[in-house]
Amino acid sequence: MPFASYQDASLRQVELRDTVLAPRIRTALETTIPSALEKCRVTGRLAAFDLTWKEGMPNCPHIFWDSDVAKVLEGVAYSLALQPNAALEAEYDRLVERIASAQQEDGYLNTHFTVVEPEKRWTNLCTNHELYCAGHLMEAAVAGYEMLGKRRFLEVMCRYADYIAQVFGRGEGQKRGYPGHEEIELALVRLFQATGERRYLDLARYFVDERGQSPNYFTEVEHQNPFGSMDYFQADRPVRELQEAKGHAVRAVYLYSGMADVARLTQDESLLQACQRLFQNLTTRRMYVTGGIGSSFHGEVLTRDYDLTNGSLMYAESCAAMGLVFFAHRMLKATGEGQYADILELALFNGVLSGISLSGDRFFYTNYLEVDDNTQVYNAGAKERQPWFECSCCPTNFCRFLPRALQYVWSLGANEVRLNLPLANTLRNEWGEFQVEGGYPYQEEVRITAKTSRPVTLSLRIPGWCRHPQLLLDGTPVALPPVQGYVSLEERIWTGKETLLLHLPMPVETLHANLKVTSNAGRIALKRGPIVFACETIDNPLGVANLILPSPQNFSLTTAPGLPQGTPAIAGTAIAEAAPDPQALYFSQPLQRTPVPFTAIPYALWQNRGPANMAVWMRTRD
Amino acid sequence: MPFASYQDASLRQVELRDTVLAPRIRTALETTIPSALEKCRVTGRLAAFDLTWKEGMPNCPHIFWDSDVAKVLEGVAYSLALQPNAALEAEYDRLVERIASAQQEDGYLNTHFTVVEPEKRWTNLCTNHELYCAGHLMEAAVAGYEMLGKRRFLEVMCRYADYIAQVFGRGEGQKRGYPGHEEIELALVRLFQATGERRYLDLARYFVDERGQSPNYFTEVEHQNPFGSMDYFQADRPVRELQEAKGHAVRAVYLYSGMADVARLTQDESLLQACQRLFQNLTTRRMYVTGGIGSSFHGEVLTRDYDLTNGSLMYAESCAAMGLVFFAHRMLKATGEGQYADILELALFNGVLSGISLSGDRFFYTNYLEVDDNTQVYNAGAKERQPWFECSCCPTNFCRFLPRALQYVWSLGANEVRLNLPLANTLRNEWGEFQVEGGYPYQEEVRITAKTSRPVTLSLRIPGWCRHPQLLLDGTPVALPPVQGYVSLEERIWTGKETLLLHLPMPVETLHANLKVTSNAGRIALKRGPIVFACETIDNPLGVANLILPSPQNFSLTTAPGLPQGTPAIAGTAIAEAAPDPQALYFSQPLQRTPVPFTAIPYALWQNRGPANMAVWMRTRD
To answer: Cα–Cα distance between B405 and B412 in angstroms, integer?
Structure first.
């Protein structure tokens, strides 16, 4: 199995101009990141690093607070790279100093376990999030270094990582532990890539390899087992033996991301095979049509094949969809296969973006595929995104996720530039300038030009969802189908005169779900290109549960009021059912049926025009 | 508002011969009660009354254990009345002595709070179940007295009740408390009826009236609030002000039952109005089509109008359906209105009987209306009834519920005999003999004869579900419609020569649910007479979620293998859907559709032929 070795383009090299992702990134810089930073301040998360908290004081540092600050700070680094701001940079520097000041003599850095429960340091890796927080701080430090060239934070975190490497390992006197919430694995890989220090990759590999070995560290050493089964922590067996995507969804995909990184960088085939197996199980058996994952809110877990209910029971946490993007991105880098970009794109445009409001300051933790009046019984926030949460992992994750999403647009190989997401943008690097125009992902036409100073192979991803793609180079059809999802144009010096026209037809597709997804029996989901649609009561005032969408029918494209200009909506004819007595609980009289127009909007954009009921999977009939 | 004053027939006076309830009662006597008694023995529940448990010993008496023993013992009393058994009676007497021996000097009787946490007596009425256990012991004692004339247990419990009356009340030095789990209210009413001692009715009324008054006893005196809202305990406001059926479903209907009793016996109109309001809300907005109640397994609670999902989220505890029968029975006695008998019958034949296997020794705690492979993620016992539970309220409740169900067949008024459930049976009392023949509830024809020694009005319930009933007296049509659900035949001395033929046509009805019950949109339930049907994969091996039942269609009656002789099944034509690739998670190819026969069986009888998937609400199309 040959490993691919694609690199990401730097965020600074990509100028994004599309109408879907670019505005979200802009809003992240202007709203999400500043407001999350403010939330961190007012909730005491920043002050926690002063280590002045004492018993009886308010704002006791929580075990995951450090990670929130780290994620926001990582976002600030990207923000400063994309949009320099002297005041913000000064604040960034002060905050880094504040964090550095919390570092202990030995290198340890954790606010909770320094001031609240110092006696418990490293005593409960299973649930205490210490290594998780360390990982996020490392990612933040790497971002500051890579984006801004700042070494201070990086050095602090290298010291912490070196201390962690002393504490954990297979040597005498070391703890053979690993984190209950994975994250440090992929963070150490980033630290290795930023510093070139192989020991960080080795430590990442240790955490991956040691996981789930016998005797089990959590149950046999720590005597912890809070969720009754070690598969909640992906620690029921060594990671190479994992067969199914199981347990806490975010933890799972963070681990798998770290595994994929380690596999690629150490050319570890058995580890990559495990990643491929887990990816297949996750995305072809346990993933919502939106790219959301985690079908039970009990423990926020992945459950079993085809258990994918839409409503109150489900979870599909925003962070889990982001984690799926992380995993897919790493699999794409390790294999170069377009199937991973397909899932990356699906999760990005649907299950991730649904988690944040267009205004950038409201968030879903749970991304339901169906919300009705009853959903609120189980989750008071089901119908409206919230500004913040007690456990605010999702809002802070968006701070860093969104600006970094720029890196998914292109991959760079040896002499090869690959366009993963054909969004309107310009990539400028030392080889030249690569320009993409068009309205993707909402429109079908993509126009690509390039001007290079050296011979470059230009590869274009042909999305897996596209049945009849066409590619013209200066008017001449280029032979398709693609190889592993990409079509490569022979290495050449691009003069800027060649025009590549990529036509990606986007008919409205009606998807069925496997009949074992019992709640979707008799229902269809509408998808166009990579975008999944949903019906919201805003556009369908008679309701959504009582609408039937006859299929096949000639759907047409339209717009829906109150959504960003250019957002497509799907229009068609539905049958609205009504009961003879709208109060009656059970009745045998026939339902009244009326043909009505219906409108479906991109799922990710629901609940941006007020609270509403919504459904992705709509009843159908032929 | 005039109060009715109907009495129950004594269990001993009713000889039941029908093919649905009578065999269940027989099995209760032969299997359920003896096996539950044995379970109480092996789990230490009986030995708990010896008060010998000490710290470190096994089988620590749990706070609700006394109630389990009491319910089984209540069942034993009925069993001995219906089927004398010298050995069982000797065991009964010994067990009563064992319980009596646990009574403290002051009259207190509770195993847990005598030996495990004596310092906590009466300190946490909110969650500690002391008064709940007391109530069940009282009911058991009353049953022993009424059925067998035994006074010993009754005297023990009167002493306990007198002690409770000292502790609780509005007098100086008394606690103004009331139970977190209602039960003692209706038990005290039974104690009053058995002894004629008004003080027990007064105490019942005190517990009803004091509930939810300000300051709230649970939150303000005990400082308890484990479920965040006092409506979980029906204690958020005084009971007369309750507007909606809320909180823990079993607690709710036990309270309402006690309220209805107190209202009837004290001619308390405002209290009866509250009961009527709660009954309406409960049964016309929050009840499953099977008579099951409690739509969330989070807290086993009633949630909101039209929140009635079928699968993993739901609860519909067996005890709650029994409690609905208790409530309906008391409303029937207080008002004489047939609507209450309609609900009693619905819950009895469907939501209650589904909770127990035909073999009498396996139980559902949760009575799902839909079970698929995914239900097991949330409840390992979803697909198969279990022999016992850690909290075994449902199995022990069946011990007393089933034999006592005989009393629902008839009501007795002044000079009036009312047939509530036209099951084949004979009532023999001091007025004469009343004979009912026919195959109800499975067959349409009922034949009634009577022979009395004095003038008696004979009233027959005309079920609310029946659209075109006919009644013939010696071949002559009797004028219908009925008054408040009953047709009364003029007072006369019945000679045994008159023949009443009641014809209750039972076409198969296809029911729709309110469209706000979103999971039932596009679905129908099949009902025939009072019996709700379900499709089980045993009879429908291609599956149930993928079946569509076109409607209207000519359903026919058939039988299903492995069910008791005479059990009707509904047969018809369904459309079975299949996916082109049975593994694919999402796909756009059309489904394959094949007409297939389908069979639906009475819901209460599902999972008596092995584990299976099942659905009450089936997809439909016209």
So the answer is: 15
Band (A2; pLDDT cuts 50, 70, 90): low
Inter-chain CB proximity B374 and A309 less than 8 Å: yes
Give the tens place of pLDDT for each residue, A577-620. Answer: 999 999 999 999 999 999 999 999 999 999 999 999 999 999 99
Q: Please give the structure tokens belonging to residue A94.
A: 């002060």
The average pLDDT across A514-532 equals 97
3-state secondary structure of B394: helix
User: Torsion over CA of B69, B71, B77 and B80, rounded to 10 degrees?
Assistant: -80
Sign of CA dihedral B601, B606, B609, B612: positive
Say whether pLDDT at A1 is over 60. no
Positions of B annotated as catalytic residues are 300, 393
CB A518 within 8 A of CB A599: no
Q: What is the pLDDT of residue B98?
A: 98
Tokens of A312: 């109150």
Q: Nearest CA to CA, how far is A474 from chain B (Å)?
A: 34
Size of interface A-B (CB pairs under 8 A): 143
Separation of alpha carbons B570 and B572, rounded Å: 7
Q: Tell me the nearest-neighbour CA distance from A594 into chain B, angstroms.
A: 14
Instruction: Find, among A488, A217, A314, the residue nearest to A479 by Cα.
Output: A488
Interchain CB distance below 8 Å, B587 and A525: no
Which helix (H) or strand (E) segment is A77 a member of? helix A65-82
Write down the pLDDT at residue A5: 81
B374 touches chain A (CB under 8 A): yes
Q: Percentage of chain A with pLDDT > 70? A: 100
Which amino acid is residue B512, in one-letter code? H
Q: Is the pTM of this model over 0.90?
A: yes
Q: Which residues of A are catalytic?
A: 300, 393
Would you call the peptide bond into B552 cis, given omega within 30 degrees of 0 as the criterion?
A: yes
Helix/strand/coil for B69? helix
Is-contact A551 A511, C-beta < 8 A? no
Long-range residue pairs from B218-227, CB within 8 A, at least 24 positions apart, any chain: B218/B125, B218/B126, B218/B180, B221/B175, B221/B176, B221/B177, B222/B123, B222/B124, B222/B125, B222/B126, B222/B177, B224/B124, B224/B126, B224/B127, B224/B180, B225/B126, B226/B126, B226/B127, B227/B299
* Alpha-carbon distances, residue A477 vs A474, A503, B60 (angstroms): 8, 11, 81
Q: Are A454 and A477 in contact (CB under 8 A)?
A: no
Strands A476-477 and A486-492: unpaired
The interface predicted TM-score of the complex, written ipTM, equals: 0.96
Residue type, A609: R
List, for chain B, all residue ranges whose pLDDT scores fall below the cut of 70: 1-2
A585–B545 C-beta distance less than 8 A: no
What is the rounded CA–CA span in Å between residue B602 and residue B559? Answer: 11
pLDDT in tens, A133-177: 999 999 999 999 999 999 999 999 999 999 999 999 999 999 999
Contacts of A377 in chain B (CB under 8 A): 296, 303-304, 307
Contacts with A, B 541-560, CB within 8 Å: 543, 545-546, 548
Task: Kindly state the average pLDDT of the residues A56-81.
Answer: 97
Q: How confident is the model at residue A228 (pLDDT cuts 50, 70, 90)?
A: confident
